[in-house]
Amino acid sequence: MPTSKAAVPSNDNLLVGWIAPALIPAVFALAFLVPGLLGRYETEIAFRLMLYIALAEAWNLLAGYGGLVSLGSAAFVGAGAYVFTGVLNYLGLPPAVGLALGGLAGGVLAAMISPAVFRMRGLYFTVGTLALGEALRLFMVNVPWFGGSRGLFLDAEFPSREALFLWALGLLTLAQFVVTAYTRSRLSIILRSVRDDEDAAAQLGVRVFQVKLLVFVVASALMGMGGGLQAYKLGAVEPYGMFGLPWSIDILAMVVIGGLGRRYGAVVGAIFVIALAEVLSDYPEIHIVVTGVVLVLVVRFAPYGICGLATDVWRSTRNATAHRKQETNA
Q1: What is the pLDDT averaged over residues 104-133?
Q2: Residue 147: left if φ>0, alpha if ψ -120 to 50, beta else—which one?
Q3: Are 1 and 204 in contact (CB under 8 A)?
Q4: Sign of torsion, CA 171 307 181 219?
Q5: What Å distances lie between residue 150 and 75, 141, 178, CA to CA?
Q6: Which one-letter DSSP state was computed for residue 238?
Q7: Ranges of H-type helices in the chain
Q8: Cβ neighbour number for residue 229 with a 10 Å cutoff
Q9: Strand partners, 153
Q10: Of the four listed, 75, 88, 287, 326, which is most buried by Cβ atoms within 10 Å?
Q11: Which residues of 38-66 are buried (b: 16+ CB within 10 A; e: fewer)?
Q12: Over the Cα atoms of the chain, what is R_g?
């Protein structure tokens, strides 16, 4: 295995590595507990932000750490949404079970298609996963069992805004725990070795298929749970929305802008994209153009996103300060 003793995190780093991610859901929980802080609008934005952070964290784990750049996120979101709706409508089970089974559906779908898509690498893998999402969308449109193009209505009481907030907070907390556990363990080192050179990792004894399968299933399960939560919020599912390409594109844009493969890139990117969307909410065409321009500029001038750029600036400033102190002491 391509691991080394020096790469194992120290206890101090472990403490910081676990506390910092825990602060993200803690901030939302604190805002919820302060009376009068979150009105109707703020609660809606917070729900959307927590949902997208969870989805972007899952995609960052898959693409940033595993090198599996997928455009099929919508397939797992849609599968989770439909399974959630079916579980509540036909089995009468509680929403918590529906979300769990929605996540299970995303993971099972990923496991089923992995032998086929893992035969492709790089851009071919990306195109293959994109085709999966579109194929599932067309399947759901044309098969009457799932309501066809009209979709299905959720046969359950609409949850309150506060209840939705808590469900989203739970999903965000779960995503932070899963991604932190993954990135703070030896699995992260093995995963990055596969990302950097799959053939070399295999020659060193890494079971490449199992490593890729595990991260693919974990990320897809989180996306499936996110789809179930979105279905719970909307009270209905239809193929054009739940299997829509915007799910895949928005998540990708958030991670790339925030910092692909950076621990907090998904969080920063989600905040940036959603804040930009709210500022330009009256001008949706301009919002799409601005987001595209920002994405191009980030890819061209800051390949590690906002987090990478901030890290570079901080290091340059620290080095310049240390250099000036040395000159002064000399």
Answers
A1: 91
A2: left
A3: yes
A4: positive
A5: 18, 8, 35
A6: -
A7: 11-33, 40-59, 73-86, 95-117, 123-142, 161-183, 186-196, 198-203, 208-234, 239-242, 245-258, 265-279, 284-301, 305-329
A8: 28
A9: 236
A10: 75
A11: beeeebeebbbbbbbbbbbbbbbbbbbbb
A12: 21
**Do 70 and 129 form a contact (C-beta atoms < 8 A)?**
yes
The pair of structure tokens assigned to 80 is 């989770």
111-149 burial, b at 16+ Cβ within 10 Å, e below that, comes to eebbeebbeeeeeebbebbbebbeebbeebbeeeebbee
Split at pLDDT 50, 70, 90, the class of 3 is very low
What CA–CA distances, in Å, run from 277 to 48, 223, 240, 289? 12, 22, 21, 11
Question: Per the structure block, which two tokens stand in for 168?
Answer: 């989203």
Neighbours of 249 (CB within 10 A): 16
pLDDT per residue as tens digits for the range 267-299: 999 999 999 999 988 888 888 889 889 999 998
Q: Is the pLDDT of residue 162 over 60?
A: yes
Kindly state the DSSP code that residue 112 receives in the 8-state scheme: H
Cα–Cα distance, 22 to 39 (Å, whole number)? 24
Give yes or no for a contact between 90 and 147, defined as CB atoms under 8 angstroms apart.
Answer: no
pLDDT at 10 > cutoff 60: no
- Note the pLDDT tens digit of each residue in 188-223: 889 899 898 888 988 888 899 999 999 999 999 999
How far apart, in whole angstroms, are the C-alpha atoms of residue 247 and residue 210? 27
Q: Report d(CA 223, CA 219) in Å as an integer.
A: 6
Other Cβ atoms closer than 10 A to 16: 12
